[in-house]
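Hi Y.,

Following your request, here is the sequence exactly as I used it, all 429 residues.
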Amino acid sequence: MHEGWKTYKLEELTSLLGDGLHGTPKYTENGDYAFINGNNLINGKIVIKPDTKRVNHEQYLKYKKNLTDRTLLVSINGTIGNVAIYRGEQIMLGKSACYFNVKENVDKEFIKQVISSNYFLNYLEANFTGSVIKNVSLKSMREFPINLPPLQEQKAIASILSALDDKIELNLQMNKTLEDMAMALYKHWFVDFGPFQNGEFVDSELGMIPKGWEVKRLDSLVSFSNGYAFKSKQLLKNEEEDCLHVFKMGHIKKGGGLKPDGTKSWVRKSDCIGLSKYILKVGDILMSMTDMKDNMTILGHTALMNENEKYIVNQRVGLLRIKNNIKVGYPFIFILTNSYDYIERLRSQANSGVQVNLSTDAIKSSLVVTPTRDINEKFQNIALPYFEQINQNAIENQTLTTLRDTLLPKLISGEVRVKDIEQTIAQML
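Below is the corresponding structure, written out as tokens. Let me know if you'd prefer a different format.
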């Protein structure tokens, strides 16, 4: 270890380390304080969701925790390892999150970077208890070992990693803006019929639509196939050379969208001979065909593939590929298949049970209001560049995330020094 570096337990670097309320407070509608747990810690921030329960000032004072501008929070029950910085939010902390206050002579951002790393997550996973609901004890948290360099180098390391985080966050914000723009345009044209209100409308199976438009089956616009049913013994838990990622339902976000850090599973390319039609390409649309009845969040929703020949699609995920001669492109189909009206119609065709399933026929025969070729082409010309930029940003984020996760353990161990990589990082950003 380099001169001036020393290994500490987390408790030695904090003035206080505790967890939230063990119990249930009295909730108050429209209370001033949000009652949060570990699932409210997202991407370094405390996210107060619309359905978050609230408490009044009296309850807050009764169970108040000593949260300060030096406070970091970590989820330790259920979902393990979510991290956030406390920024003065009016919250009451539940038991599935712990908090600790970083000492003044330690850089808070450096500690935040360490506990946001795979290094920390691997430590938590090695120390959790509970077979159904994971739980990490405060004792394990306090004993987490950290290699601490001198304060100046702590700040330099945190600055490098924070710059990567900032670029990732900027790309995420840009993508959100682009997605919102594409969806707003889709809604204005194809739901509200804004540009076509002065024209003639005719009745259809899906209500009044502009004259000249049609109601078509989805399979007249795309080819559809179910994913390939791999045998469990073919699936790998760790990536090897000459492998493909297996695309499963866990790669589809709630409400739609691609989750690249979803289910971790791989298959050897040697086991995929003759399966080229299942290997995914940019613009492929992946639909969840199964969900749980009591917690339905992804049934019918889709993700949009942004890389070529990296993934192969697994069973119970439907593969939609654009196939039509009227210029309907993947932006239209992706937004359509995540729209409220389409999802509701499609889900009404699902079977009923503990697991809810969509049949191939239900998906292929689902109805779509289809504009004329010239309108489709105009929409494609506007929306496609949005999605191409979204894809580019998403791939860049995967590269930056991998770089960050690779650099962090090397930086905090001293294997790589900040002075050796500053120029390279600056060129990337």
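The chain is about 35% helix and 20% strand.

Thanks again,
Q.
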